[in-house]
Structure of DUF1330 domain-containing protein:
Amino acid sequence: MTFERIMALEVVDDDLYQQYRDNMLPILHTFGGSFGYDFIVSKVLKAKTTKPINRLFTIDFPSKDTMEKFFADPAYLTVKDKYFKASVNAVTMISMHEKAET
């Protein structure tokens, strides 16, 4: 079993968001995490939130505990503060769950 989060964002600065991804990815990999799917969304037909969405992705971890450690990691938080906060206007967590490995 692995642990997966399905996330939706409104990215407002694509270049800065890409810098965030480039800088956080090595940290994510040290925790055994990875991206499963990654989409740029052109049109939302139905949403349970009023927050705008233009990006959708899954992020996978070996366990929920590992995910929590990653998001609390000081190196990750430094990258998030530098790039994520200025490049993303809205964040929606669609789902968080254990999943069977495929």
About this structure: Strands lie at 2-11, 34-40, 55-61, 88-99. The longest helix spans residues 14-30. The chain has one domain: 2-42+54-90.
